[in-house]
Amino acid sequence: MPHSPRSIVVPGYEGRAARVPAGATLTVTDLEGCQIGDLFVLSADNLAERLSPAVTRLVNFTPFPRVGEHFYSNRRRPLLLLEEDASPGPHDMTFAPCDREIYAELGAGEEHPNCRDNFFKAMAALGLSVDSHPDPINVFQNTPIGADGQYTIGMTLTRPGDWLRLRAACDLVVVLTACSVDIPFAGVQPNGGRSTPLRLDIG
Prior knowledge:
Layout: E1 6-10, E2 15-20, E3 25-30, E4 37-43, H1 53-60, E5 70-72, E6 78-86, H2 100-105, H3 115-125, E7 137-139, E8 163-168, E9 172-178, E10 198-202
Antiparallel strand pairs: 1-10, 2-9, 3-8, 3-10, 4-7, 4-9, 5-6, 6-8
């Protein structure tokens, strides 16, 4: 896979896909602050091999990789190295992407933009088709588990320009979506009430 450094802006409420060669860096930057990004990761050689949060937790024995640790595939192969985190965090690896159903349940209607649909649209724009989506890395998502075992929904803590850098351990296809949540969850607006752009730099 040729190495071609590039920068991709992901508009609010949308997603973008890219091919990433082994050894390249992926930097996700929050351009305006307070924005969650859903990062979907698949092996370019076999789209059935994709990020597995469960295997990643098993290998690292942590809820989320620390700097210097890998994200692993469903075949227990390293896909990404978490190289540097210049954000306040936290990040999440337990939530599925938002979908039509959750917005319908919350009264926003089934046509509300969502990360699941945006994943498939972005893959199609790259000329790729899959039957299901991987579980994402929810970059900048502030949903810690409290002492009572329940999730706490918090506003995203990033400021404009905060970023997270990863390095591809093999040839990848990635999709980054700017999370579409613009309605309250448990009385909290995780994205500050609207979806805003992210930037994906591949170097």
